[in-house]
Amino acid sequence: MQALYAYQQSVAADLLLAQDRIAAAFEPDLSAKVTPDRRLLEGQRKLGEAQLREWHRTGEMPESGSDDQEVAEAVRNAMAYYQQMVKKENTFYGGQLLHGAESIHDQYLHLLNMPQALLAIITDDNERETRRLTGPRFEVEGTARLFGNAAFAKVHENEQLLQTTIKHKLQWDDAEETDALRDAWQREMKPDATVQAYLAGKNTGLVETDYETDMELLRHLYKDFVFKGEALPRWLESSDLNWEENRPIVRNLVLKTLKMLPHGAEPTQELMNLSANWQDDRDFAETLYNQTLTDDAKSEKLISDSTPNWDVERVALLDKIILKMALCEMQLFRGIPVKVTINEYIEISKVYSTPKSKQFVNGVLDKLAQDLAASGDIRKSGRGLLDNQ
Fold this sequence. Notes:
Layout: H1 2-25, H2 38-58, H3 69-112, H4 114-133, H5 138-142, H6 144-147, H7 150-156, H8 159-168, H9 175-189, H10 193-200, H11 207-226, H12 231-239, H13 243-259, H14 278-294, H15 296-306, H16 317-332, H17 338-352, H18 357-375
Helix pairs in contact: 1-2, 1-3, 2-3, 3-8, 3-13, 3-14, 4-9, 9-12, 11-13, 14-16, 15-16, 16-17, 16-18, 17-18
C-alpha cells in the first residue's frame, strides 16, 4: 500500500514535470533577432498542456489533434518523457517494496548484535577510565558479570548471525548509533534496579539456572531499553522512517529468537525468518503490487460505477489504493476467501486512512464482491471456499 501510494504521488509529480517541458518549449527566446510573439507562444503552450491532460485522462489524443507541428512535437516529447518516468517509478517503488520488507529482517539481525556492541562500549569506557586514573576502578569489576553472560555469548556464537552480519554489514559501527547505545547504557541501563541486582549477584553454580538468569537479563535489556526506553528508540526512529510501524515485528522476532536459544542450543541453530515462507510472501507482494497497477483503470471504473453519489476523483487517494488492492486480491488470488480480504483491508483503512474510511471501504467492497461474484470475475477454489465466501 505504501509503495503504491508513493508511486501515485510520484506519477502525479511526473505529469507536472511533463507539462513543464511543454511550457519550456514555448518560452520566448529573448536572444532571437525577431521579437517573439508572446500571444502565439502562450496559445501554443495552453493548447499543448490541454492535449497532454486529455491524453492522460483518456489514454488517447484528442481527435482534432494539432495542426501546429511545434505543438504536436512538444506534446509527443512530453508524453514520451512521462511514459519513461512512469516506467522508472514502477520499477523503483516495486523494488522499494521488497527492500523495505527485507530490511525488517536485517534490522532484527542487527539488533541481535546489540549485546556484543554493549560489551565493546563498556570495555572502551573502562579502558578510558583506567588510563585516566592510572589504575582500575571499582566500575570495571562491577560490570564483570556482563562479560561472563552466557546468553550474550550464545547469541554471538550463532553461525547464521555471524555469517549474515558480515554479508549484510549489520555490525554496530555507526558512530551515532554507538553513541545512542552508550547513552542508553549510562543513563538508563546501568542505573536500572534489575541491572544493578544482576551485576551485584553471583552465580549459583547450576549451569542451566545461571543461564536462565543471564537470558532473563538479556530479555530485560531488549524489552525495556531497545524497544522502550529513550535513547535507543529515539535513534532507531530517527534512522528508520518506518521504525514505529516495524517495531512490533522486529520485537517479536528478537524475543522469539531468544526463546529458541536455550542453554543446549547449538551454534548451528537456525534463526527466525521474516515469515514461515518468505519466498511465497515475497511473490504475493510483488504480484499484488504489479497487478494492482495493471488493473488501475479497470478498478477505477469499478469503484466509480459502484459509488454513483461520489465523484471518484474526490475519493481519498489512500482509500482508492486500498480498494484497488482489495479488488485485485479478490479476483487474482483464488485461495483467499473474499471475507478475509474485505476484513483485512478494512483493518488497513482503520490504521492508515481517515476515521470514516472503514465504513466507506466496507460498503464499496461488499457491493463489488457481490457484483463480481455474480458476473464470474471472482472465482474461489480450495477447501472451505464454497460459494466464494
